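We store sequence with structure; for instance:
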Amino acid sequence: MEDWRQYYATQSMITDPAKYGPFFNALPSDIPALCRSVQGLILHGHWAERYGVKLSEERRQEANLRKVSRQLGRIMELNDSPLTTTRPLESRIVGNCRDFSVFLTAVLRHKGVPARARCGFGTYFIPHHYEDHWVCQYWEANEERWVMVDAQLDEFQRNWLNIGFDTFDMPEGHFLPAGRAWQLSRSGQADPESFGILDCHGMWFIGGNVVRDLLSLNKIELLPWDMWGLMPGEKVQDIPVEQAGLLDRIASVTLAGNEAFTEILSIGDKAKLSPLPGWKP
């Protein structure tokens, strides 16, 4: 079985930069500086108007590119400067939290650093609400721990949200992996209706993110709206007992330490995590 360090230090079919890989060589290795570089390439579609940018529907569709290689192609179409150059807001590719996290993951893997995108919920966007969100984890070898980074939050967003913690090494509790959200809701410690985004919330949505997080740990970094077979149906009220039990197990595995690596890879087969018809990488 492949070592988990080697596994997370190599690209997935989603994070592989393909012919654009050499463009990553000039990017910094220092995490704060690297995040600033990523922030200078991507504009979050939901934040655009706060920056004073009005996006066309065509530009918003850039959030569907999925693969980092395709994103890099579009980035260079908009502005062919080196990736270390901060683009004007209008020349940045349009994305979302998933894209900041996956892009950072791709760069770190290119540099040989074990990294993975994580799907869950942020506590720091709306008071008393757990917002659908993605972050990046990388392995800090000297300290032998996974470090959680929110690559989306630039200085403007940190000030807007009044962030008082280190977004480059986030303390536990500010971001909840989807498995933890599932456990809190299943045990009655949290209201499942407080987890989600816009008009999408509740156990079905949390369950969907549990699957997205598991797949990301298997290096299948979905778009936030991709649907795969095990995910509960949209806005379903009652999740079948058997499906809920399997999601219980998946939640536990995704929250475990590195010792759970083998099961993380194997539980996908047990759960029959096949994509729905029409899904393309």
